[in-house]
Amino acid sequence: MPTVHGVWMKYVVMSVASYATLYILAPPRVDVALLEDAEGLPFHKHCLLSLLAYSTVLNGFIAGMFRAEVGMEMLGKDETTGQVPLWSYIIFAGFHFPTWLYTALQATKDGTVGISVADEVAPGFWLGGRYGNELGRTWDGIIDLTCEFPERSKGATDDAYLLLRCWDGVPPTPDQLECAAAFAVKKHSKKGGGILVHCAHGRGRSTTVMCACLVKAGLYKNWEEAFEACQAKRKVVQLNSKMRRALTAWQEMQCKK
To answer: Which segments in the chain show pLDDT lower than 50?
Structure first.
């Protein structure tokens, strides 16, 4: 099961693994830090060493962005369409490819053990991952918590989509939670297409927002009760300490109103 705890360490591991491979493959005369004195190497090996150096730097940088909870906008995901531009896939290929591969493999694994791409945790409120489009529904509202994947689900209207860019394992701010909850309540209709709240795997980021949505809709008194309700319908949901603190801060904001 993917975890919502310490996700940034995954990119530290990829950075270290890339550097270790670079160090092993580089000839003794080549400075692996600067790739100096690499003249005379076969073209394909020079390209490989350059890619490994690039992956080392990029994934280390991404891990730092995760840890600092900043830089979600740098991937260029469009807040209106939810699409990721081509230049992002080119510049950040060393981040996008392993992230896509890991998520696809995890989704396949989930399917083999009966975990759905999304589950209805309350009437009209659906919680899931990036493959929610496979349900074939047209949604009254879509709340997307990813900055790394393009939106594939279909909204009923042009304003049915809300993007809150978050790194995996990093929750929205209390203000963003309020924005998402208000959006969900406004768009929700028991006779309509429903509200889809999704992240990559349907574990943490989406659960954080769904808890706020369910409380805002008056279905539960507090986020703790809402979380228990989500767990009852989708067994794999989790909240890390940052997510719990964000929900508590949001809830305190509501009490002051």
So the answer is: 1, 32, 34
Nearest to 128 by CA among 225, 234, 7: 234
The whole-angstrom separation of Cα 208 and Cα 214 is: 10
User: Which of 133, 127, 130, 118 lies closest to 212, judged by CA?
Assistant: 127
Q: What angle do CA 7, 10, 16 make, to 5 degrees?
A: 145
DSSP letter (8 states) at residue 173? P
Tell me the DSSP string of 186-202: HH--TTSS-EEEE-SSS
Measured distance CA(132)–CA(194) in Å, rounded: 12
Residue appearing with tokens 């919502």:
4
Distance CA 233, CA 229 (A): 7
In DSSP notation, 130-154 reads: TTGGGG--EESEEEEEESSS---SE
What is the reported pLDDT for 48? 84
Minimal CA–CA distance to 183: which of 214, 204, 213? Answer: 213
d(CA 33, CA 13) in angstroms, rounded, equals 18
d(CA 207, CA 184): 14
pLDDT value for 24: 86
